[in-house]
Amino acid sequence: MAEVVFFIAAIxxxxxxxxxxxxRDPFYSVLALVGHLLCLAALFLLLRAxxxxxxxxxxxxxxxxxxxxxxxxxxxRLDHAxxxxxxxxxKGLSFAFAGALFVELMIATLGTGLDALGDEGAGFFxxxxxxxxxxxxxxxxxxxxxxxxxxxxxxxxxxxxxxARRREGLEPAGTISVGDLxxxxxxxxxxxxxxxxxxxxxxxxxxx
Amino acid sequence: MSITWYLVVSALVFCIGAxxxxxxxxxxxxxxxxxxxxxxxxxxxxxxxxxHGNQDGQVFAVIVMVVAACEVAVGLGLIVAIYRRNIxxxxxxxRELSG
Lengths: 208, 99
What we know:
The structure holds two protein chains of two kinds.
Chain A: H1 2-22, H2 26-46, H3 50-75, H4 88-111, H5 131-139, H6 143-164, H7 178-183, H8 199-202
Helix pairs in contact in A: 1-2, 2-3
Chain B: H1 3-23, H2 27-52, H3 56-84
């Protein structure tokens, strides 16, 4: 039973990875990555890592991928195929590098005494990998790492806001922003086009 | 299931991600391929954690997820900033730092 689930999930993981790299549209790449993450969560469950699997689905496939979807919808479709004008030599070199890396990793994985670990892995207690156990570890043995992670998240959130904010005087005149869309009723895509006298107008013109 | 199978899957996904970073030119897809590589490392960590019967590897995987979330936030902020300034969103076009 575990073997069947493993091979289905592993095929899903690899297919999702190939789809992420090979699909032309970034939006479809993001969707392929979501499938990859869900199959990876199944693998984590097989490895008795319940909390990591749940965090994978909720945080990764749920929250982070929404960011990707929004940004890929914002910047629109880019006409970049795989190695569009990188030259055939460079593309072949890239694939050769990836293949060489895989061969090297296979030698490292299969050539070492990994079989000494045993087929089924070490024994585990019933609560292995449960949220309670992971939480206990995070708040006792790895408290410093936990605090550093929280601080890192804070710094990254502030940094992202500062990076992506609208700067005064930096934009060239032709740039379309959300504020311009609301100012100019001739542009499509706003509510004002269809509903005159909606809430947006009754509140006065929106300020940038 | 033998742990070696999980490591083979992990190595394969890692190599696919590395090849994608080298081949693709859109920064968004490069970030996605970076996620692939981080996830492959996560799978190896969790597999070794299971093999040794020790939960430390799973804590490490959770911390890796946090770092990946930070990287995504900053990276996507950079992409949005690049797009706002009408610079082509293409890693081959951005060569101001290459001296």
